[in-house]
Amino acid sequence: MSGYKHLGPEERDQIAQLKAKGLSNKAIAEAIGRDPSTISRELRRNVQDNGAYRPVFADGSYLYRRQRPALLDRDERLRRYVIDRLTEGWTPEQIAGRLKRGIERGLQAISFETIYAWIYSKARKAEKLWRYLPRRRATRRPMKRRWSKDRITDKTHISQRSEAANTREEAGHWEADLIICQKSRPVLVLHERKTKITFMTRLMGKTAAETVSAIMAVFKRLSPDMRKSATFDNGGEFAQHTLLQGMLSETTYFCDAYASWQKGGVENINGRLRRWIPRRTNLDDMSEQDIQEIAMTLNTTPRKCLDFRSPIEAFLAELGKHVDIRFNDNVALRS
Predict the structure, then answer these.
(1) 225-263 burial, b for 16+ CB within 10 Å, e for fewer?
(2) What secondary structure does DSSP assign to 86-113, as a single string?
(3) How far is CA 244 from CA 63, 212, 227, 247, in A?
(4) Under 8 Å CB-to-CB from 136, ≥6 apart: which residues?
(5) Residues 8-23 as b or e (16 or more Cβ within 10 Å = b)
(6) pTM attached to this predicted model
(7) What is the pLDDT of residues 152-177, one digit of tens each?
(8) Are the C-beta atoms of 287 and 80 separated by less than 8 Å?
(9) What is the DSSP string of 214-233?
C-alpha cells in the first residue's frame, strides 16, 4: 500500500468511458493499469441510483470524504474512550474488540484499522499517539546459552502435563517467572493459562525459599480448583517447588533447559510488563502499590483470546461470578 496513489480526474474519465462501453471491472482495470479491486471500490462508492457513473460527481465525493473529519474526530466521547484506553496500555485491536461486544453504552463500534489510521493521520501527528502502541520488535534478540548444573530435584517434565492444561480447557494451571532489573529486588509473576489473570508480588531476594514462600502466599488464597499445577523454568529460584506439592497438593512441571518459551503465557506477559518496567528500572524505587496497579491494568485489559473479555472477568466467570466491567466515561460498573 505504500506505493498506492488515489485515482485522479483523468482516470475517472477513462473509467466512465470504458464502463459506458460495457467493459467489466477487470477489463477496465487492465486498460488503465489499476487493480480490479480499485475499480470495484470506486464504482461501489460513487455509482448513482440509476446505475450511472459520473466522473465529476465521483471527484466531488472523493474530495468530500478527504475533507470530512474522521469518525474519531467527530465523536468526542468515542475519541476520549480510545485515548484513555491507549494510555492504559490497550492495543487498538483490544479497544475495537471491546467496543464490538456492545457493553460500552452509547459508543459506536469501530475497527482496529480505523484506530490505527487515526493515530497515524496528519491531524494527530503532533499528539504522538503512537507512543502508546505496544512494542513491535520484528524478531527476538538471540540469547546466549550457558551450560549450568541443574540442582533442582524431583522434577516432572512438562511433557507429562495434562492435556487439559496444555489446551487451556480448564482453569487452575499456572506459569511462574521473575521480572529482574538491574541491581534491585525481583518481582514474582504468576500467570494462569486459561483466564490469563496475572498476580505479581515483590520478593526480598532471588532465593528458592523466598520465591516458594511468595508463591504459597498467593496460592493459599485460591480455592483448590484454581491451583491445580504450576510450570517453571530451570532457574534455581524454583528449587523448593516440592513444598507446593506437599502443602498445597499442587503438581509442578519444568520446561526443558533453555526452553522458557514452553511456558509462553508468562513469557508473553513479561514482555508486556517491560512497557512499565524496562530493564533499566530500579525496582526498589517502586512501591508495592505501584506493582499492584500494573497488575490491575493487565487484568482489566481485554484479550482477543478471551473474546475481548478481560482476564479478571474470565477468572470471576470460572468462579461462577459473571461480571462485565464498563470503562465508558472513566467509570467501571458492575452488572
Answers:
(1) ebbbbbbbbbbebbbbbebbeeebebbbbbbeeeebebb
(2) HHTT--HHHHHHHHHTT-STT-----HH
(3) 67, 8, 10, 5
(4) none
(5) eeebbebbbebbeeeb
(6) 0.66
(7) 888 999 999 999 999 999 999 999 99
(8) no
(9) HHHHHHTTS-GGG-SEEEE-
